[in-house]
């Protein structure tokens, strides 16, 4: 038992030692199609410094609009971000990059089931402001297309549909740097 605890402690130490930051985030995204409304999500993110100018970030988000409605929505993204040269200092920086997001939502009611998958490549521009050397706030804007694929079934009948649309979003976060 002792060896297992020490192994888990060592693994946790190694896995977080190389991390740039761990944070909480909230997002608002809107796809520009008729009768579409935007949605809020909340999640966590982990960012890893590649070098002093660039970072890889991965995050996962849950859509709170789905609680109690019989719908489950989950999404996430991976992003490569790079600081603008000559902009910023030790207290703040401005960055740009690209992300690739994947979302899934599923619901069922009275024998009918629908599942929707979304793939969202996006361009990203944002800023980070550090309140202390460890704690920071971030804000960013992302724009890009969303490719959606839906599957529906009722009893033995099924159908599929696909669509794409342009969208945009904003993201705010609070991060702790290691």
UniProtKB/TrEMBL annotation:
<protein>
    <recommendedName>
        <fullName>Outer membrane protein beta-barrel domain-containing protein</fullName>
    </recommendedName>
</protein>
<feature type="signal peptide">
    <location>
        <begin position="1"/>
        <end position="19"/>
    </location>
</feature>
<keyword id="KW-0732">Signal</keyword>
